[in-house]
User: What shape does this take?
Amino acid sequence: MKFKHGQRVTCKIIQCDVTKIKDAKISINSDGSKYVCQNQKDGNNSAKDKLGYKYSFDIENVTDLKPLIKDWDNLEIGDEIGTDNGIKTVLGVCGLVIHLSCIDSPDSYDNGYTVPAMKRNNWTIVQSKKEEEKVEVTMDEIAEMKGIDVKNLKIKK
Assistant: This one.
């Protein structure tokens, strides 16, 4: 799966226990090494740019790495593509070809399409409608992340 610098992801960090991370971003160093940056678990911190997070882990130390927002580079089986006539489901990805179901019939095979062809047809990726979990933080935690005294913190909506 292709990831981009700054892309939001979820994952599990492998250590002596498994920690589910719901708020993280991918950081890619100039040498191409990839890291997951997040605030929950102290890691090797080798990412040059932690993208505002406290910690980073080498991408090899995580499992269930998934993009938070789907794009054309990371389609998977089960993703949905919106067309002018309805929804098609991704049944498989083979090289440059995305195999899709018939409209509104996820169990019936329609055809294989390339991403450029889908874009030319103005098809779109249907984003998951899961409600994003709210993250609770204290003013002390925000001040610590920003490296300032909590008295100098001003929060606006």
In short: The CA atoms of residues 6 and 26 lie 5 Å apart. The chain has two domains: 8-67, 72-126.
